[in-house]
Amino acid sequence: RRVHNKPIPRFGGIAIFAGMMVALATFAAEDKGVPAAMAGCTLIYILGLIDDLKNLKPVVKLSGQVVSAVVVYAMGLRIEFITNYFGPGNMAFGDVLCFGVTVLWLVAITNAVNLVDGLDGLAAGIAAISALCIGYVAYIHGHYIPTVAMMVIAGAALGFLPYNFHPAKIFMGDTGSLFLGGMVCALAFGIDFPVILLFAGIVYVIETLSDIIQIGSYKLTHKRVFKMAPIHHHFEMCGWKEKKICVVFSLVNAAGCILALVLLIK
User: Fold this and answer.
1) Separation of alpha carbons 111 and 204, rounded Å
2) Averaged pLDDT, 158-166
């Protein structure tokens, strides 16, 4: 895809990383989960930076993400149970399942945010909406430091957005998208509602499913379900303008956030 008629700088993720790290170290480092997220996601940031420079093989990227997730787990930030939103009691995980679910969930969300970063402003806008929603839920439930951490993520994404919205003056690259995805997901562990991203990040779910469906369909039938995957490119090939796609997808994600608030604010 060549939608820009001139070269665009692609290391905006460095600014996102630097701004977030300084703010988190200043205002939120006293919470035990924040240093764990910072440590693990710094590794993800370095991985994204190398990928933007060297174009790493998928297996190398995946291995690096798994290592980063293991660091987050080892530092105590993990999914230990799933909240039962519709009745009493929660589903607790044993050590092995806790490890597997934590690593899988973090790697999945990190890659989902990376998938969304295909149009100008889309990844930054969705990350800001998701972080604002999760931050509000954290505040309602008394998790005040994670609230601050989520506001830091939202602020970084919103601060970057004017430079990244179509026509973009700079891209965040894998450096930014992998780091944003890792931080949003890891810090959601710290408010005991990791599954909130199924709703507050509904666009991540839709984009990932569209890619899985497209690949699965082509492997099995040699036919494509969408004109192009992930699905934002399908709408682009249907003639939608980038700005329209970003606005519509943002509204869809906002609707998912409203659903999350209905479920989680009691």
Assistant:
1) 9
2) 92
Determine the Cα–Cα distance for residues 255 and 248; give it in Å rounded to an integer. Answer: 11
Candidates 141, 84, 113; CA nearest to 203 is 113
User: How high is the mean pLDDT of the chain?
Assistant: 89
Secondary structure class of 81 (helix, strand, coil): strand
Give the separation between CA 213 and CA 217, rounded to whole angstroms.
6
Residue 217 tokens, joined: 């369909």
Burial 185-222 (b: 16+ CB within 10 A, else e): bbbbbbbbbbbbbebbbbbbbbbbebbeebeeeeeeee
Query: What pLDDT does 183 receive?
Result: 93
What CA–CA distance (Å, rounded) separates 137 from 173?
A: 29
Cα 132 from chain centroid? 13
Q: What does the block give as tokens for 44? A: 């993800």
Which residue reads 């944003």 in tokens? 180
**CA 245 to CA 222: how far, in whole Å?**
27
Identify the three-state secondary structure at position 133.
helix
**What angle, rounded to 10 degrees, do the helices at 95-116 and 202-221 form?**
90
Determine the average pLDDT of the residues in 131-140.
92
Residue with tokens 């499913």: 209
**89 pLDDT more than 80:** no
Of 37, 32, 175, 187, the C-alpha closest to 113 is 175
Contact 26, 155 (CB under 8 A): no
Distance CA 35, CA 52 (A): 25
Nearest to 102 by CA among 39, 211, 195, 202: 195
